[in-house]
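ingest -> validate -> predict -> emit
validate: passed (alphabet ok, no gaps, 86 aa)
predict: started
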Amino acid sequence: MEIHELFRASLEIHTPLIDLLKESSEDRSSTVRRVSAEILTREMDNLGIKARVFAERFASDNSHAVSERGDFALRQLNETESANAS
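emit:
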């Protein structure tokens, strides 16, 4: 009698958020860029000054769905800066 054992190995890869945003913001697919812009809006507090760079990139995107999210991120950043300035 043969006994087969299956081994399952899990592989975890940790890619920095900045690298993921950079790559996905330059992707050919507007869907990928849109999801990336949504991630930006959730993670802006963790990105510091880089958040504005990505928000501006998304805001100037040819895809309306992507540019809309970039505009939203810029508004959020401006509101945060205004609140911190006062």
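DSSP finds four helices and no strands in the chain.
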